[in-house]
Write a structure and sequence with these properties.
The complex is a heterodimer of chains A (137) and B (166). Chain A is built from six helices and no strands. Chain A has helices at 7-12, 18-28, 32-49, 75-96, 105-118, 132-136. The longest helix of chain A has 22 residues, at 75-96. Chain B is built from eight helices and no strands. The chains are: A mainly alpha (137), B mainly alpha (166). Chains A and B meet through helix 1 and helix 3 of A and helix 1, helix 2, helix 4, helix 5 and helix 6 of B.
Chain lengths: 137, 166
């Protein structure tokens, strides 16, 4: 057997078949270079595997029903979406809102003046004059 | 047959943290990792309806990998994007959240730095194996290369890591 090479990593990862393990172990018993490489690979593998498993940032994944709470995209997406929504609302409002009708003063008078005569709520405003004594106290 | 999560929420709950760690170890950037998790979950949500029973892990990590590479390509097309124009040179972010995150993992500083120096294919293979915990077969399915290539990439990646760390 030549030097074990990548079989060493596969061995450490449990990715070799039984007969390959036997061959490799026999080779390692007689090859100092491969035995040293095995130790080094083991050390590197442990170092990577010992990196802490990071927690997900809070709020990254909504807990509630996906239909109600959509996934949050990045900020750029929402800024763009909000701007587009505002522009759309303004455009729709501009199309659908009728221009302010010009109503003659006489017509207003006839509409609301008649109602004012029947509905007390439309009666003349009461002017309340505060007691001067209350103010000065 | 492998059981398949039924909803994307279950996928998020079971795999969200793994996807985040995969992305973080590839990029060294917590914001990019968070964006990737969201992008992957969106794709999972769209794709679950059409999912054919098979290797769910292979399917999920293929989506994750494609989302990651798409993001890299997208940034490379954006002249103002902070990332450089090569897949294997993601910068460490300087945002406060990344600083906080980075200080939390300072114990693994050297290893993380060495990972970021690896060529992308080697880094990806090492991360999928040692961080995510996939078998060579699963990595091969996710990355769409033969198992022998996975074995070679992992070993060469570890050898480069050893050189960086000594």
């Amino acid at each position: 057997m030549n030097h074990a090479g990548e079989l060493i990593s596969a061995y450490l990862d449990g990715e070799l078949a039984r007969h390959e393990i036997d061959q490799l172990q026999a080779h390692l018993a007689t090859c100092g270079k491969c035995a040293a490489e095995l130790e080094e690979m083991q050390s590197v593998r442990s170092a990577v595997r010992s990196l802490p498993l990071l927690e997900l940032p809070s709020g990254l994944i909504p807990e509630a029903d996906a239909e109600v709470v959509p996934l949050r995209r990045n900020k750029g997406f929402w800024v763009g979406a909000a701007a587009a929504a505002v522009a759309l609302v303004i455009a729709i409002a501009a199309v659908l809102t009728p221009s302010t009708p010009s109503v003659a003063l006489e017509e207003l008078n006839s509409r609301y003046g008649a109602r004012a005569s029947l509905d007390p709520a439309f009666g003349p405003a009461k002017v309340v004059v505060p007691d001067l004594g209350d103010i000065l106290e | 047959m492998e059981s398949v999560p039924l909803t994307w929420e279950e996928v998020a709950r079971v795999y969200g943290r793994k996807i985040y760690n995969f992305a973080y170890r590839l990029t060294g950037n917590s914001d990019d990792a968070a964006d990737l998790v969201q992008e992957v979950l969106l794709r999972v949500r769209k794709g679950l309806a059409a999912y054919q029973p098979g290797s769910f892990e292979g399917w999920l990590w293929r989506i994750t990998r494609n989302a990651f590479l798409d993001e890299v390509r997208k940034r490379n097309r954006r002249p103002t994007a902070p990332l450089p124009n090569e897949v294997d040179r993601w910068e460490l972010a300087s945002s406060p959240s990344a600083d906080v995150e980075y200080s939390r993992i300072s114990i693994g500083d050297d290893v993380q730095k060495a990972l970021l120096e690896l060529p992308y294919e080697f880094r990806e293979a090492v991360v999928l194996c040692d961080i995510v915990g996939l078998s060579y077969e699963e990595i091969a399915r996710a990355v769409a290369v033969p198992v022998g290539t996975v074995r070679s990439r992992i070993h060469r990646g570890r050898k480069l890591l050893r050189e960086s760390l000594t």
